[in-house]
What we know:
Function: Removes the 2'-phosphate from RNA via an intermediate in which the phosphate is ADP-ribosylated by NAD followed by a presumed transesterification to release the RNA and generate ADP-ribose 1''-2''-cyclic phosphate (APPR>P). May function as an ADP-ribosylase.
Number of strands: 9
Largest sheet: 3 strands, antiparallel
Order of helices and strands: HEHHEEEHEHEHEEE
Low-confidence stretches: none
Strand order of the largest sheet: 1-3-2
GO molecular function: NAD+ poly-ADP-ribosyltransferase activity; tRNA 2'-phosphotransferase activity
Radius of gyration: 18 Å
EC number: 2.7.1.-
Distance between the termini: 44 Å
CATH topology of the largest domain: ADP-ribosylation fold
Number of helices: 6
Mean pLDDT: 94
Strand content: 15-25%
Structural class: alpha+beta
Enzyme class: transferase
Protein name: Probable RNA 2'-phosphotransferase
Shape: globular
CATH class of the largest domain: Alpha Beta
Helix content: 25-40%
CATH architecture of the largest domain: Alpha-Beta Barrel
Amino acid sequence: MDERRTVKVSKYLSKHLRHQPERIGLVLDEGGWVEIDTLIAAAAAHGFRFTREELDHVVAANDKKRFAIEGTRIRASQGHSIEVDLGLPPATPPPYLYHGTVARNLDAIRSAGLRPMNRHDVHLSADRETATRVGARRGRPVVLSVDADAMHRDGHVFHVSANGVWLTKAVPPEYLRFPESR
């Protein structure tokens, strides 16, 4: 499977497993799962055909592990804008987590902190390199440090998804460390 096809199938899966399953007639269960055969049939009925082999390749090849397969079912690992319960237990975060963004967002973040926007949770990375890659999707990246240890001590709840993304409802500005201006 070539890279362009892999990306195309991955984006299609993200759209319909994270944001708009109803557009192709899918009904996800409360955990965000759907039968793989149902997904493939719904996609084909709406003009986008892919095989089980292509699906397996996309799931295995995705460096961010965006999707999980359990038996005959598939779901997105996180990032939903629709209501799902991923069933992730609370987790103790490392002392610091990181968030990649771009400079144009910094004033709003300084004022209101990190908010989930159109998702259910704020996404944080365990290392600066990953946060840098995330921020670079929108332009020149700026990496913020999150004092996750202090947040946790103060009662904020964290979860970690199967692909290592740390999730929390919000990060108030007092827990953020901004890089020095150049």
